[in-house]
Amino acid sequence: MRNEPFMRTYSPRQEALARAAAQRQAAAAQRPAADGASAGALAQYMVKTEPYYRPVADEVELYEAAYSVRMPIMLKGPTGCGKTRFVEYMAWRLGKPLITVACNEDMTASDLVGRFLLDASGTRWQDGPLALAARHGAICYLDEVVEARQDTTVVIHPLTDARRMLPLEKKGEVIEAHPDFQIVISYNPGYQSLMKDLKQSTKQRFGALDFNYPEHEIEAEIVAHESGVSLEVAKNLVHIGERARNLKGHGLDEGLSTRMLIYAGSLIAKGVPPLAACRVALVRPITDDPDMRDALDSAVTTYF
Ligand SMILES: Nc1ncnc2c1ncn2[C@@H]1O[C@H](COP(=O)(O)OP(=O)(O)O)[C@@H](O)[C@H]1O
Ligand SMILES: [Mg+2]
Fold first, then answer.
1. Are residues 123 and 186 in the same domain?
2. Are residues 125 and 272 in the same domain?
3. Which end of the chain is least crowded, N or C, by CB within 10 Å?
4. Is the pTM value of this prediction over 0.85?
5. Cα 73 to the center of its chain, rounded Å
6. Residue that is last in its domain, among 176, 210, 244
7. 222 and 77 share one domain
């Protein structure tokens, strides 16, 4: 599905955007050597084999439309529900390299943008992941972006509006983003707090796709595929997951993720008895509260 937003209504801003995009594309076409270098620089970031991804709704089509206009995208949802797998799948499907950054609070703007390194022959500039992606045309995925400090996240701003550029202040260079470049962030609304949230000015630069634990049949299919247990066992695991998710807010901070169900399934597939597998992979990790553990253990014994 291709989206042609510039064709529908006249808007000076959109026309300027379209003109700028056309100019950039023409400029890129005249840089065959650079593109050859780009392919080399990003070869290691190509997703070579098709990742298994089971679509849950129309997220694949929506993402393709967003990519076709290079809209920055935010994947929202609880941990372990398929956000990272989805972006890997989309990068493979679009045939674009994917550079993933796991964000943390010690991360600085230089970690994203790049820095001068000292070596035997003097100083040498090294692009950070964001600069590498913008220069050569990759999808840059900032995983769990709220973990980064707000003064770090603001460096993505000029890349997320019509300018599509990245100033490298220390180097005195401005990178004009490659036409293939796109930025994607993931975000867990459950972790939202005043201290750890995205600035409104950051949020409003993104289109958002909502993710959640898939509906029963689909989640069972995923758990069976990923862990190697039968569909029947996978369905039981999903039932346990759903029970636990109902306890969220009543003593549990987060529901059981699809990832945890897959862990439990993988142990079962290795021959660990289901009760022990569920204890290790599902119950013990998410709570230390004895009553809550009892409640979850009894949900496990209902199904195994
Ligand atoms: N729709 C899906 N299709 C295929 N696998 C999925 C899907 N949703 C979740 N998974 C599985 O769950 C695991 C955890 O998902 P992940 O993408 O790492 O979660 P998140 O990034 O949301 O924390 C993946 O490794 C994958 O095995
Ligand atoms: Mg993830």
1. yes
2. no
3. N
4. yes
5. 9
6. 210
7. no
> What pLDDT is recorded for position 44?
96
Do 166 and 158 meet the contact criterion of CB atoms below 8 Å apart? Answer: yes
Strands (E), the chain: 73-76, 98-102, 114-119, 122-127, 139-143, 165-168, 173-176, 182-187, 207-210
- Nearest CA owner, ligand 1 atom 6: 82
Burial letters for 259-273: b for 16+ Cβ neighbours within 10 Å, e otherwise? bbbbbbbbbbbeebe
Q: What is the pLDDT of residues 235-253, one digit of tens each?
A: 999 999 999 999 888 888 8
Nearest alpha carbon, ligand 1 atom 12: 259
pLDDT tens profile 54-86: 999 999 999 999 999 999 999 999 999 999 999
Residues of the chain with pLDDT under 50: 1-8, 28, 31-34
Same domain, yes or no: 225 and 206: no
- What are the φ and ψ backbone dihedral angles of 10, each rounded to 5 degrees? -80, 130
54 and 86 in a single domain? The answer is yes
The CB of 159 under 6 Å from ligand 1? The reply is no
Q: Do 138 and 235 share a structural domain?
A: no
Distance 128 CA to ligand 1 centre (A): 27
| pLDDT the model gives residue 252 | 84
